[in-house]
């Protein structure tokens, strides 16, 4: 075998070996790149999931805050008309029409008064129609929830300054509330009242 043939054979084997080496290197690079890409994709998905959870938590916190705020300010008072005043009176379940009054209702206020001691022998206790068609501005307290407001013990009504003085003076007596039908604006004569002895007439002798 001549030297020339030996060199040709060596060159051919060298080229083949170089080609095989190149193919092996490329395959290794491709295999290394695939996990790297997969890892990057997984990182993106994980970040998106974390961001979504964070947004959901913020939304839940916002909802809880809104609910708390609603409980605190859920019983807002109707605005008072120009020239009038807002005044609150205490009532029990019976006096307050068993929880059927709500803001915007119209009521009459009755005061049951005891006769003065000096005149107790001459006349009995009496009941008088103190206010008529008074507008209810609020019930209960501002912080009451829906269930508590149904068992209100406070009623805020709209009054004129003079009516406020009258009502303030009458709070020493038992006050009762009469709920009006919607649209009923009929008024009784001023100083409408009844004495206890009027109830006795025709009953007791």
TrEMBL record:
It holds the Pfam family RcpC. The chain crosses the membrane at residues 6-25. Signal peptide: none annotated. The keyword Transmembrane applies. Residues 37-56 are annotated as: Disordered. The keyword Nucleus does not apply. It comes from the Bacteria. Residues 40-56 have a biased composition (Basic and acidic residues). Keywords: Membrane, Transmembrane, Transmembrane helix. Residues 80-171 form the Flp pilus assembly protein RcpC/CpaB domain. This is Flp pilus assembly protein CpaB. The gene is cpaB.
